[in-house]
Amino acid sequence: MEPFVRLENVCKVYETNGVRVQALRGVSFEIEKGEICVIIGQSGAGKTTLLNIIGGMDTLTSGKVFLDGEEISAYSKIKLTAYRRNDIGFVFQFYNLIPNLTAIENVELAAQLVRASVSPAQLLADVGLAGRMSNFPAQLSGGEQQRVAIARALAKNPKLLLCDEPTGALDYQTGKSVLALLQRQSREKGMTVVIITHNTALTAMADRIVILKNGEIAYVKLNESPIPVEELEW
């Protein structure tokens, strides 16, 4: 069967004021449906650029990206907008919740974007926030805000969940609870999850590990025995 996500020789060059910076050089790898893929790299390695290209928020300079058999790198701007809206869920490091909307209103806003959405109230209950639905972001802890952000991303029932340093702003225990939630989505619902991070300890929970260095693939490794997040230590 064809891989769920496939990148072929992806390159990205930024040019600003005559300065040319190559963020990605010939990146190629695959991800199977239902896998957790952890992409590791230091700051400036190209992780966020790569995630933005997969998610349709940035365009590549050359190469190809496929999702579920479709070449998204060939999409027009209109098709990319629909792709981001319908197929992709994003979880960012700093939550990006709308401050004047309650937790459930933040999730409802995402659910309204698509037809095959998931119940916002059920999602908030699933992430342990059944009693916090009417709270505004300022009334929630960092971990609670991140769980709202995950519920919001899942409300669209996306084909692919993309997570940009989802635990970077969280304390140890809250970070583990967020990762455990992501792992459950993969194991119980067959959702494909991509996590970018500089924390090498997270590779132990992954099905597939991609190491980026200076915009290039250092190596790709399959993990035959990923461990439950509860056993992670860092």
What does this structure look like?
The structure is a single chain. 40% of the residues are buried. Helix 3 packs parallel to helix 5 (142-154), helix 4 crosses helix 5 (142-154) and helix 5 packs parallel to helix 6 (172-189). The chain has a single domain (32-58, 86-225), classed as P-loop containing nucleotide triphosphate hydrolases (Rossmann fold). It has 6 helices and 10 strands, in the order E-E-E-H-E-E-H-E-H-H-H-E-H-E-E-E. Strands 6-7-8-3-9-10 form a 6-stranded mixed β-sheet, with helices on both faces. A 4-stranded antiparallel β-sheet has the order 2-1-4-5, covered by helices on one side. Strand 4 and strand 5 (70-71) form a beta hairpin. It is α/β, with parallel strands linked by helices. It is globular and about 50 Å long.
Give a quick rundown of the structure.
With 234 residues, the protein is an alpha/beta fold. It has helices at residues 47-54, 77-86, 103-111, 120-126, 142-154, 172-189; strands spanning 5-16, 19-31, 36-40, 62-67, 70-71, 88-91, 160-164, 192-197, 208-213, 216-222.
Helices, strands, pairings?
Blueprint: E1 5-16, E2 19-31, E3 36-40, H1 47-54, E4 62-67, E5 70-71, H2 77-86, E6 88-91, H3 103-111, H4 120-126, H5 142-154, E7 160-164, H6 172-189, E8 192-197, E9 208-213, E10 216-222
Parallel strand pairs: 3-8, 3-9, 6-7, 7-8
Antiparallel strand pairs: 1-2, 1-4, 4-5, 9-10
Helix pairs in contact: 3-5, 4-5, 5-6
